[in-house]
Design brief:
Strand content of chain B: 5-15%
Number of helices of chain A: 22
Number of helices of chain B: 6
Shape of chain A: elongated
Largest sheet of chain A: 5 strands, mixed
Strand order of the largest sheet of chain B: 1-2
Distance between the termini of chain B: 74 Å
Order of helices and strands of chain B: HHEEHHHHE
Structural class of chain A: alpha/beta
Strand content of chain A: 5-15%
Oligomer: heterodimer
Strand order of the largest sheet of chain A: 1-2-3-4-5
Helix content of chain B: 55-70%
Structural class of chain B: mainly alpha
């Protein structure tokens, strides 16, 4: 059944989506992958270049679908580059002829195979010194992916049901992160083994599993859901690797592959956003109002985080003016549906500062603090939902018509009164920026709220979507608070130092796991 | 297996759970005033007070069980289940109230906020001592906004009600009570004026 699921995914997907699991199969075979193309730009006709354990160089060109004579003729130029040109890389001796592969998730027509054989024979006959071209088709890919999946398939019936539910999910909806996390945990990362090799295999297998589990979201080009899926994998994988003290050199490449896949989905999202005239999505009926504003909030937030990330990763990166315009044009649509919207607002705040608009950053911080204290102060009955509740869950409980349909799961908003998960990170954000007046103006009511957070036993547990062990902390703030003390507390200390190496990854992690926007983690990312 | 109606039963079970929760809240004055907080993860809770003291507690499981006779189920149908739910609601209410009172008892004893009447009847002195230990809030016009209530056993209710009426009619008590409220008002405004950011 799982093989059928993998096959079904493989024949429907494109080369960009099977690229990562294909790279993973090479890693599992002991290859060192030295090049992976980005943005569909082939380098000398090569998508992937690897060196195997016997120092043989392998170059791959990936294609999607069946390759008949017409398709073959359209790619022949690229194939020529693949087999004729040596790859420019310090690790590669250009005198050595590499092995070339045309990879496709479809079939290669016999007429094409005949031409390939003729080319190979002719090159050999005339001693041209070109590389030999081998075809890897759907069957070989499928066999490799199934082998890589190995023992990491659902065994319990519950897991199987979850697996099918995820595989057949409505690709237009948000990813069910809880369900997806649970599948990864149960099927892959709770695999009981002491063998290092098996632990590595679990990491490798998780990328294949993720690729085809997200199949329905690939079909609908639901880039945001795909981004979330890859981030859930990244964080779960990272937790597994750290907890089991696996040698970083063995798994970091895979982690980076998965992370780059998440970034690629955001790049696709950015392209789509900038090409759109209208941001209504799907059925017009029911769109607009809070639904529309929340969509815009997510887009502005996550694309702001993306732009800031690009700048942080490469100082020479120039932030995209079109994204700045998109943020500016839609800033009035920002919607604080609940505390799970906080990371998106934080993304806009930091992006605004990066692009020289610190006034907007201050205005947003002021708004967030005021909104939190106003909504959650005891006199109000409809407090802001804490960050464990998504926008969907909040709207299902606030909209009068939806409440009737959702009667069994209506949120009790009174339970959020007098407390907040975001208020401490918010006032510390203000402290780091010297915005004393925002905190001072609201301190009377801030001091009446209980500061809530979840505290973990080991740093890496914060990477889990849900953590069995940990403390739900309620902090009573001081009535009289020293501003200098607040500034001191808001500076990064020793907490979560082990996660500081992943500071580029963490902002995206927060967008997907808003309940992890604790004061400690915010200190790390908001440096 | 025989033909069944699980989709209907699932919904009925959800309705049962909702109704039990609703009954508990509406039948229990103290539980109706308390907040239900849902935690999604973790295995403990910790409260950090303003003075830095910490209180750690673990989650406790409360359960109520009922056995049902097949004959009663067959003849009663959902109406019978509703009766069973009533019993479950009462038991859960009792257990939750007990847990809450135990927690309050532990907390007030720890903080020295308990008054042991030693089996004696309520007196003016005791009542004033009780009010003295409470924190009050006031609105901008000086009116008290705190919502305190006496929780007593049904057996003691009438007796206590009469006693309170007698005490509260006493002029001396009224004077002392008003003086106490003035003091409490001052304490409240002092506390409020301390809610500030300093250098």
């Amino acid at each position: 059944m799982i093989e059928k699921a993998i096959e079904n995914w493989l024949i429907k997907t494109n080369e960009k989506n099977y690229q990562l699991p294909f790279v993973q199969t090479l890693l599992a075979k002991g290859h060192k992958v030295i090049y992976i193309s980005k943005h569909s730009q082939l380098e000398q006709g090569k998508d992937i270049v690897s060196i195997d354990s016997e120092n043989v160089i392998h170059a791959y060109q990936l294609k999607g679908g069946n390759i008949d004579l017409s398709a073959w003729r359209s790619i022949k130029g690229e194939i020529q580059e693949l087999i004729e040109l040596p790859f420019e890389h310090p690790e590669i001796d250009k005198k050595i002829i590499h092995c070339s592969y045309l990879v496709t998730n479809g079939d290669v027509a016999d007429t094409v195979r005949l031409q390939i054989n003729q080319i190979n024979e002719d090159n050999e006959r005339k001693n041209r010194g070109y590389s030999y071209l081998t075809v890897i088709n759907k069957e070989t890919l499928l066999k490799d992916f199934i082998e890589l999946q190995g023992v990491f398939i659902p065994k319990e019936l519950n897991d199987f049901e979850s697996f099918l539910k995820m595989y057949l999910a409505d690709g237009r909806d948000f990813l069910d992160k809880k369900e997806f996390f649970q599948i990864l945990e149960n099927v892959v990362f709770s695999f009981n083994t002491k063998l290092k090799a098996d632990k590595l295999n679990a990491i490798y297998a998780s990328t294949v599993l993720t690729s085809y589990l997200l199949h329905s979201f690939q079909q609908t080009n639901n880039y945001y859901a795909l981004f979330e899926g890859w981030i859930v994998l990244c964080s779960t994988m990272l937790h597994f690797a750290i907890e089991h003290k696996i040698d970083k050199t063995k798994w970091l490449f895979t982690f980076n592959l998965a992370f780059e896949e998440a970034i690629r989905q955001l790049e696709n999202l950015k392209i789509e956003v900038l090409s759109r005239v209208s941001y209504i999505e799907g059925s017009h009926s029911g769109d607009g109002g809070h639904i529309y504003n929340s969509r815009i909030t997510i887009l502005i937030g996550v694309l702001s985080i993306y732009e800031s990330f690009q700048k942080k990763r490469n100082n020479k990166y120039v932030t995209d003016l079109k994204i700045e315009e998109f943020v500016e044009d839609n800033i009035d649509k920002l919607c604080y549906w609940g505390e799970s919207a906080f990371p998106f607002f934080w993304g806009v705040i930091t992006f605004s500062e990066l692009t020289g608009n610190s006034q907007r950053s201050k205005t947003l911080l002021d708004y967030l603090v005021k909104e939190t204290v106003t909504q959650n102060h005891e006199k109000n009955t409809l407090a802001l939902a804490n960050p464990y509740y998504s926008a969907t869950e909040v709207f299902m409980s606030t909209d009068p018509a939806l409440r009737m349909l959702n009667i069994f799961d209506v949120i009790d908003f009174t339970s959020f009164k007098d407390e907040s998960y975001c208020i401490l990170p918010l006032i510390q954000l203000c402290a780091r920026r010297g915005y004393r007046e925002i905190v001072e103006e609201n301190w009377k009511i801030i001091s009446k709220l209980f500061f809530k957070e979840f505290s973990v036993e080991q740093d890496c547990d914060l990477l889990l979507y849900r953590c069995e062990k940990g403390v739900n902390v309620t902090i009573t703030p001081k009535q009289t608070k020293s501003w200098s003390e607040l500034i001191h507390e808001s500076k990064q200390g020793e907490e979560l130092k082990s996660l500081s190496k992943y500071s580029l990854f963490l902002p995206f992690f927060l967008a997907v796991y808003p309940h992890r926007a604790t004061s400690s983690l915010m200190k790390l990312v908001d440096s | 297996m025989l033909p069944d109606f699980p989709s209907i039963k699932d919904k009925l079970l959800k309705i049962s759970t909702l109704l039990i929760k609703h009954k508990i809240k509406s039948n229990s004055p103290i539980l109706s005033q308390s907040k239900n907080i849902r935690y999604f993860e973790g295995n403990r809770m910790k409260v950090i007070y303003e003075n830095g003291e910490e209180d750690i507690s673990t989650f406790k499981t409360l359960r109520a069980e009922r056995s049902m006779d097949s004959k009663e189920i067959i003849e009663g149908g959902y109406n019978f289940i509703a009766e069973v739910d009533e019993g479950i609601a009462q038991e859960m209410q009792r257990k939750q109230e007990l847990l809450l009172f135990e927690a309050i008892d532990e907390s007030v004893k720890k903080n020295g906020n308990d008054i042991d009447a030693g089996g004696r009847e309520l007196t003016q002195e005791m009542l004033l001592e009780l009010y003295e230990k409470l924190d009050y809030t006031f609105d901008g016009y000086g009116n008290p906004t705190s919502n305190y209530a006496f929780y007593v056993s049904p057996n003691d209710y009438e007796k206590l009600k009469m006693k309170l009426e007698v005490i509260e009619k006493d002029i001396e008590f009224t004077e002392r009570y008003n003086a106490l409220m003035e003091q409490k008002k001052k304490e409240y405004y002092d506390r409020e004026s301390n809610r500030k950011l300093v250098d």
